[in-house]
Amino acid sequence: MKKIQISPSILSADFSQLGNEIKKLEKAGADMIHVDVMDGHFVPNLTMGPPIIKALRQYTKLPFDVHLMISPVHKYIKDYAEAGADIITIHPEATKNLKDSILHIKKLNKKVGVSLNPETKVDLIVELLDSIDLVLIMSVNPGFGGQKFMPEVLDKIKELKKMKNEKNLKFDIEIDGGINFDNNKLAIEAGANILVSGTTVFKNNNGNIKKNIDLLKLS
């Protein structure tokens, strides 16, 4: 089994201290930094664009795991690649041609992620799994932090893990949404090897980020 990695979502960080918050995450043992990008159109919320990501890039050498919840996504991919994203994750519903968008990300020398909302079927990406570096399973409806975990999505993770093993594929399985110390074990047992967590990392145990990351990793 792949080593469990934690990708803390800076959506739950102190936005007035984002650079310092990212430094704290790196020091505490985070494996990457999860950046939620929302456009107020594809999802009902607004967050950050390329200029903020570019400004934050200087604060860490950790990979930027950038989740684009924007539509249409294709024409903005290059902007996020140039801003400093290392992994660019998109939604099938946000592009006219998922295969073209995957190739576009690869041509920019970035890792490709595809995100599946709770109601989105795995079937949509089965034929593309050999060209994807990461599948992000949403365990809440995207758009807001602090939502309750939806355990029914664990079946999708098990399905992906089975396909991955049968076809000897290398993609990571990431889960995002309501991940805490009660359900992290369920997600890992189902086959997830990257856990995205915001509220739990930043708020639990009086804000002891290192302790929270270690607990999420089950280490």
Average pLDDT score: 95
- List low-confidence stretches: none
Strand-residue proportion? 15-25%
The level of helicity is 25-40%
How many H/I helices? 8
Give Rg in angstroms: 16 Å
Give helix and strand order, one letter per element, not per position.
EHEHEHEHEEHEHEHH
Strand count, sense and barrel status of the largest sheet are:
8 strands, parallel
Spatial ordering of strands, largest sheet: 1-8-7-6-5-4-3-2
**Distance between the terminal alpha carbons, to the nearest Å?**
15 Å
The outline comes out as globular
Beta-strand segment tally: 8
Helical/strand content category? alpha/beta
Could you explain how this protein is built, in words?
The chain is an alpha/beta fold and 219 residues long. Helix content is 31%, strand content 18%. The chain contains eight helices and eight strands; from the N terminus they run βαβαβαβαββαβαβαα.
List keywords for this structure.
eight-stranded parallel beta sheet; single chain; 219 residues; 8 strands; alpha/beta
